[in-house]
Every structure is written in C-alpha cells, then in structure tokens.
Amino acid sequence: MTGGAIERSPLSIVAHCIRRSVREETALERDVLRKEVARTSRFGPIARLLNRLRWSEEFTLIAVTIILLVLSLIVWMLKPQFMTAQNLTNIMKQASVPLVLGVGVTFVIMAGSIDLSIEGNMAVSSVVMSLLVLNHRNANNLGLIGLVIAIIVGLLIGFLNGLLFVKLRIPSFMVTFGMWNITSGLAIVLNQGSPITIKDQTIRSLAAGTTVGIPNITLVALGIFLAGLFLQIFSKFGRYTVAIGENEEYARLSGIKVNRHKILLFAFAGFCFAAGGILNAGRIGAGTSLFGGLFLFPVMAGVIMGGNAVTGGVGGLLNTIVGTLIIVVMDNAMVLVRVNPYAQSTIIGLIVVAAVAVTIDRSKLPLIK
Amino acid sequence: MAVARGRTRKMSDKESSPRVPIGFAKRISNLVKSDLYSNVVPLAALIVLGAVMTIGESRFFSFENLVNILTQGAVLLILGVGATFVILMGSIDLSMASMMAFVGILAARLVPVTGYWAVPLSILGGSLLGLINGLIVTMVRVPSFISTLGMSGAITGMSYWFCNNLPVYILKRDFVYTQWVTYEVLGIPLMVFVSFVALLLAWGIEKKTRLGHYVLAIGAGEDQARLSGIPVRRYKALAFTIAGTCAGAAGVILTFRVAVGTPRLGDQFMLLTVAVVVIGGTSLVGGQGGVMRTLVGTVLISTLINGLNLIGVDAFLQQVIVGILVVTAVTITIDRRQLSFVK
Q1: What DSSP letter does each residue of A221-258 carry, written as one string?
Q2: Residue A41: is its pLDDT beyond 50?
Q3: Residue/partner pairs of B264-267 with CB below 8 Å, 24 or more apart
Q4: Alpha carbon separation from B93 to A3, A151, B328 (Å, rounded)
Q5: Which chain A residues are Cβ-neighbours of B144 within 8 angstroms?
Q6: E-strand spans in A142-289?
Q7: Residues whose CB is less than 8 angstroms from the CB of residue B198 and which lie 6 or more positions away in sequence, other chains included
Q8: What tens-digit pLDDT sequence spans chain B (343 residues)?
Q9: Which pLDDT value is given to residue A175?
Q10: Across-strand partners of B9?
Q11: Alpha-carbon distances of B302 from A54, A349, B85, B263, B296, rounded to whole Å
Q12: Which helix (H) or strand (E) holds A95?
C-alpha cells in the first residue's frame, strides 16, 4: 500500500481507547480524532507546506498590512503619479463598493459558510431602486423611500438564502449559487434587458459627489464598515459568528441558537450586498444587472487575501479592509503600468485560488472534496 | 428533562441516544427517499412534461422540434457527462462553462492554421485545464467549489485576453473543417451523434473500467476508499481531467456551430451543467447516480427550455425557473447523512 498508512501515535491510541470505553461519541473526542487525522501524512507535500505557512491570527493582520504598505511603496517608486490626490481619490472611490460588499462576505465567511449570490442581490436591489426613484422609464419618484425599499428587498433575498440554507440543509455554496442565478435572471426580467437611468439627484450625489474632498461614496462605505466593525467586536452577533465558525458543534452545545443566527447572518449579508448594489447604481447612474464575476472575484479575493479563511473562525473586518485595499491598489497599479485589463481579471481569479490555498485550515475539513 | 413528543428521530443508532424532533429537511428526505427519486421521478417528470407540452403546443411533437431539442441538448449532454464524473466524487466543477469558451476561442484560432487538427488540439487544451483543476484539488488541497470558482474567473479572463475582446470569426474558407458538426444525417445534425458517442463512452467508463468504479467509491466514502488502497488523488485528478476534456469538446462543437468564438459562450451553461446532473438524480455529495441519469436530466432540461421558448417565456425568466428547479432537486436528492455538518 503506498502513501495511505496512518501513523499510530500515542495520542491516536489514547483516542481509540477512549472511543472504545465510552458508549457514545462526544464532541470532544471527535475533535481530538479529527486533529490527529489532520496531522498525519494524508496531506501531500504542497499542502503540508501551506499548512505551515498559516500564521497566527494577530500576525496575519500585521503581515497583510505590511504587504499593503510595501506594495504601495513599490508602485509609488515605479509610477510617481500613484501618490497624487486624484489617484488616491480614485482608489478610495474604487474601493468603496467592494468594501461594503466585503463586510457582508466577511461575516458569512467567518461563520464558515460562503455567499455566492453577491451579484444577483446587487442587481435586483439596484434595479428595484432605479425603478422606484426618479428614472426615465416610469413616473415613480419615491426618493429615499425607494432606496429603503430596495435595501429591504436585498435583505429579504439574504433572508431567503439563510432560510433555505438552514431549513433545507443544503450546503451554502449550492444555495447561494442557485440564488445567484435566480436573482440575476430576476433582475434582467425586471429591467427588461436594458439599464434604467437614474435621474434622482440626491442618490446620484450620494454616490458621485464629494464632501470635504473625500468622495461621498467612500464616506458611506466607511460608515457601513465601521458599523460592521462595531458589530463584530462589541456585539453578541459578531462574537457568536466567530464562535460558530470556530467550531459549530461547540457553539451549539454552548447554547448559541446556531440556526437562528445563521439566518440572521445571511440576512445581514443581503443588506450589505443591497447597499453595495445601490451605491454602485448611484455611481454609474443606472440600475443594471451584472453577470460575469465583475464584483464577485475581486471581493472574494480581497476578503480571503486579507486573512479570512474560508473555513471560518479567523480574520475579521480589519483583515477585509486591508485585503480589499491590496486588491484595489494592485488593480490601480496594473492600470498605471498599462497591463492588459484582461490579464487583471485572470490574476484576480488566480489570487482567489492562491489565497484560499494559503489561508484555509485543512484540519477543519474532514474531507477535501 | 422534557421528552420530545410526536415525530422524533434518534440522534444515533444507540439505544440510549436522545430523541430530537424531525426537522423539515429530514421530513423531505423521508418523504422522497433518494432511491425512489433518483430512479423514477426524473423519467416520470419527463413523460409528464412531454404530455403537457404536446397538449399545450401542437408544434411540440413534430420531428423538427424533437431534433431541435436534441441539438440544443447535445452540447449540454457532453458537458453534463463530464460534470457527472466530478459530481459523483462529491466535488463540483464550476469552471466548465469558462473552459468551454476558452477552448472554443482556441479552436477558432487554430482552425485556419491547423485545419482538422484544431479539434484534437483544442480538446487537449481542455484536458490540460481540467488537469490543473484536478491538481489544485488533490495536491494543493483546496476545496473544489472555491478553486473551480476562482479558476473560472481566471479562465474567463484568459479568454478575453486571448481574443482581445474581439470575437474570433471562422472564415468561410475554413468552413470545410468546421461545418461537419451541423451536417445532417437522416435529418439529425452530426453533433447529436457525437454527443451520443460521448455518452456511450462515458457509460462504458463508468460501468466497465476501474476509473468509473473508483470514482463512485470515492464519492460514497473517501476515507474508506483510501483505506481500501484506491489511489484517491490519482483518480480525482483523472475525473477533473475528464470534465475538462468534455468542456473542451462541448466548446469546440458549439463554436463550430455558431462559427464564432467569444468569451461569453459559456455564460448560461454554468447553471445548466449543474442542473442537468442534479435534476437527473445524481446526488451532490456523490456516491449515487450516473451518466444515464444525466441523460434523462439533459433531455428534461432541454425539453423544458424548448417548451418555454415555444410558449414565449423570457430567456431570463427561464434562468429563474431552472435555478429554482436546481435548488429543489438538490434539496430532495442530497444525502444528508454524508454531510455531518452543513456549511
């Protein structure tokens, strides 16, 4: 037999004896066995190297911040126009929508799930909003009420995601993959195939104007980010999310209502995606439907690269903002250096794979499917 | 301690195990046992659908329309067959649609240069991409859903890069190399025959070769398979390579049919590939199913889309409907005993 032997360490023998002597398996010994299996030669050489690369949580944040600073420095040296006020403003504007989206994605990933329905949710919310506020297709003029209704729609989509995930017990990637397609199709059906121009000036200035030299869109994004940060660090919601991601069984045994929390989580993510969609619609001036990974991949890349592992329980919003900034700076740099724009999307896709490869905690996944 | 009343189940098979109420998901699983669904329901649904369509729209049962269904379904069948091998293992390949587009552009570029050899060369390109997917899952150890998602973005970017965002037209003088896909024999285009050849090949692999049996074993229980001595990593990589090859073949055929290679070729197929496999009855966690079920799924989806087109339903509303069907099918067929926790 080649390469399939499991080393019998004292710990595994102890675990085996525990299992035989106690009638029922407990969560603790399942955990012990799992960690033991994870340490054996089941992983190939590349995976074991990557496992060793995983730093502790605190160090990850410092490390990615250093990476961001070094990257900015290198770009500044190569292209001095990087550090102009205009370019920095561009970067701030570019990073705003991915940041808002990233807040939602971060919470979901911290709980160990994943939400692929970002773009569909954005599309539906932006189309709904553009249909309700002053636009060129019908006579509605609901103003800010239209905005609120669009956010509620996004929240409901997220709620539906969570409901299907929890009640039907389908893996989250499948539920959100299905919802991605459903909501994308729905958005196109609603806008009848062509973008709806938004004429409401309040909303447009919300996304396109500037206050005190900082783009409005960045202020809104920062506001949502800070609110999310507060939620993550100081509220039960945030701490329970991390607990669920860390180890769901322990969390459930500690009394956390995991199912209810998960539904809330996806609803919150839906709110973030809707907010992102509305900001984006305001910025480009029309409610359109997107399909093709325009936001999904950069947001995922930013969140995961910042240090949030897809397996959950590690990372946080600070990691996300640094990761998102890295991606936006890289994008900006590639534009300045005049790299082929299509090469950029290729690189972003590869970054997603590489970032997951480095950050996931393979001992948490019993099988890598 | 309160005792759960009414419909309950035991948490494990032990005598002293506590009883918990049956959740909604378990009730569905009990109601529609996986075996029953997988063997009977898709076929029954197909028959019912056919009957409804014939009654509703008389054009449905014409030879022309049936050929149309098979033609639309040919590309989907090849894709579905490739995806079946991956899904049987419990993994998933979301990058098949983008591989399709890339290989199509590759083929369109190669045809003026290499003539007939463009076909095997581009399909080989697809196999290579599939192999890369397989290596990422087996050697770098990244879960397949996120790695193939990332790869799909990367490959789409490569498609745009390769063609510089300009469609690659196949010129009339090269049509002799490409238009054989639409050449009709007995009124049926050759691509339908090609798809059936692919189906039979895949069925042979699944039933008669080691690869087929091992893939099923890996899906049914990877740890058990590994402890039985199956070289799991090798066969996983092989399954992903097959998926890549099928995606390549589908891309070549579709590109030849429309005579232009574009990066957006595979857009609608990402959902449809998963749809035909899951609706046909193959379980997402693997270990159950097969290519014949995917055939039923393909005919079902193709018929449904054809029927919806005849009625005049919006193309994107069709996407909504298919999405809902996929979620429903996954709910019914997924074997939750294999998922100790649902993430």
Answers
A1: HHHHHHHHHHHHHHSHHHHHHHHHHH-HHHHHHTT--H
A2: no
A3: B264/A292, B264/B101, B265/B100, B265/B101, B265/B104, B266/B96, B266/B97, B266/B98, B266/B99, B266/B100, B266/B101, B267/A291, B267/A292, B267/B97
A4: 26, 33, 20
A5: 368-369
A6: 196-197, 210-211, 214-215, 286-287
A7: B77, B78, B81, B246, B249
A8: 445 566 676 666 666 666 666 677 666 666 655 565 666 777 777 778 777 777 766 666 777 888 888 888 999 999 999 999 999 998 999 999 999 999 999 999 998 888 888 899 999 999 999 999 999 998 888 889 899 999 999 999 999 998 888 888 888 887 877 787 778 777 788 888 999 999 999 999 999 999 999 999 998 888 888 888 889 989 999 999 999 999 999 999 999 988 888 898 888 899 999 999 988 888 888 778 888 889 988 988 998 888 888 878 888 888 899 999 888 888 877 766 666 555 6
A9: 92
A10: B20
A11: 46, 31, 21, 23, 10
A12: helix A85-110
Count the helix, strand and coil residues of chain A and give each as a percent rounded to the nearest 5. 75, 5, 25
A43 contacts in chain B (CB < 8 Å): 141
pTM above 0.90, yes or no: no
* Per-residue exposure over A74-95, b if at least 16 CB sit within 10 Å of its own CB, e if not: ebeeebeebeeeebeeebbbbb
Based on C-alpha coordinates, what's the Rg of chain B? Answer: 21
Q: What is the ipTM of this complex?
A: 0.85
Asked if B225 contacts B75 with a C-beta cutoff of 8 angstroms, the reply is: no
- Kindly list the residues from chain B whose CB atom is less than 8 angstroms away from the CB atom of residue A23: 14, 16
CB atoms B156 and A349 under 8 Å:
yes
Cβ of B143 within 8 Å of Cβ of A368? The answer is yes
> In this complex, which of A24, A164, A352 lies closest to B17 when CB atoms are compared?
A24
pLDDT of A223 higher than 80: yes
Describe the crossing of helices A144-168 and A258-284 by its angle, rounded to 10 degrees: 140
Total number of residues shown for chain A: 369
Tokens representing B342 are 């649902």
A200, amino acid identity: D
**Residue from the list A172, A184, A293 with its beta carbon closest to the beta carbon of B343:** A172
Question: How long a stretch of residues is chain B?
Answer: 343
Residue B83 backbone phi and psi in degrees, to 5: -65, -30
